[in-house]
Design goal:
- The chain has 8 helices and no strands.
- By secondary structure, the chain is mainly alpha-helical.
- Helix 2 runs antiparallel to helix 3.
- The longest helix is centred in the middle third of the chain and has 30 residues.
- It starts with 7 loop residues before the first helix and ends in a 25-residue tail after the last helix.
- The relative contact order is 0.12.
Length: 280
């Protein structure tokens, strides 16, 4: 699908807002590219008070310099890496019609910013229960790390799974507006991420499988908030169904790395059975 290209004037207005407020977009502070541009912006923003026509012109030039730096910072750090620097990718759920439409284009309203969408600019498909064709393979992680991670985070993650499943009853009763928001610790969104990191990554690397897992976790978070703000019971039920698809996709991925040596696989929500593989 074609990406939407914003005009220079719109980018200029965007940069002006960033210079004045430094709010409205989430800057991943862990990005070295952002650190470089933050230093550049800090140096450029130190403007002197104009005292003559010459200083006024100088100030105007400095302002345009700040705008240029801000635009570069936004394009290179906020939006998906797959997009060209001058293009801003809008989230449309290209490969998944069930993806939450409340996700912001700059990925600023999710828990784990660096996910599949941040990297590729698209929404991956949900994984049907028992399907091991996507992703093609799971990264190798020592069994000791997987065992320790499962022991540490499984109880909290399971509580989050159980709470998510129970929301269907709240929706059926018409109480969906009063459920806890996605940021509530009871849903264990962050423990989900730590569990995925322990199974799919390492302290020094982040791979595509972990980006994918983070996307599913972010979808759970967004869908919970979509339920809470849904305009109708049917809309709330649709968001809950998508959240279940997301959590089952994640659990299906993790179960492929939970061998008999590591522990018992997770039971998928509404499925009741799992497929377990034997590897390392």
């Amino acid at each position: 699908p074609a990406m939407k290209v914003y005009s220079f004037n719109k980018l200029l207005l965007l940069s002006s807002a960033l210079v004045e407020n430094a709010v409205g977009f989430f800057f991943p502070t862990f990005s070295p590219r952002f650190d470089d541009r933050r230093m550049m912006m800090s140096a450029d923003i130190k403007m002197q008070q104009p005292s003559s026509v010459v200083s006024s012109i100088s100030t105007r030039r400095q302002w345009y310099q700040q705008c240029s730096v801000a635009v570069a910072g936004v394009a290179m750090t906020t939006f998906p890496r797959s997009a060209a620097a001058e293009r801003l990718v809008e989230y449309q759920g290209e490969n998944n019609g069930g993806a939450s439409k409340s996700r912001r284009a700059d990925n600023s309203n999710v828990v784990f910013v660096q996910d599949h969408y941040y990297i590729f600019g698209t929404a991956p498909p949900f994984i049907p229960p028992g399907d091991m064709s996507y992703p093609e393979k799971m990264p190798f992680v020592p069994s000791k790390q997987r065992i320790e991670t499962l022991v540490k985070y499984r109880p909290r993650v399971q509580r989050g799974i159980d709470l998510l499943a129970s929301l269907q009853g709240e929706i059926a009763a018409g109480n969906y507006k009063s459920i806890l928001g996605g940021e509530a610790p009871e849903y264990s969104i962050r423990p989900f991420g730590l569990l995925a990191a322990g199974f799919l990554g390492s302290e020094t690397t982040v791979n595509n499988e972990l980006y994918l897992a983070r996307w599913y976790i972010n979808e759970i978070f967004l869908d919970i908030n979509d339920i809470k703000t849904a305009p109708s019971k049917d809309a709330a039920l649709a968001s809950h169904a998508n959240a279940i698809k997301a959590v089952n996709s994640l659990l299906g991925m993790l179960n492929r790395s939970i061998t008999s040596k590591v522990g018992d696989p997770f039971v998928l929500v509404g499925v009741g059975s799992v497929i377990q593989t034997d590897d390392n």
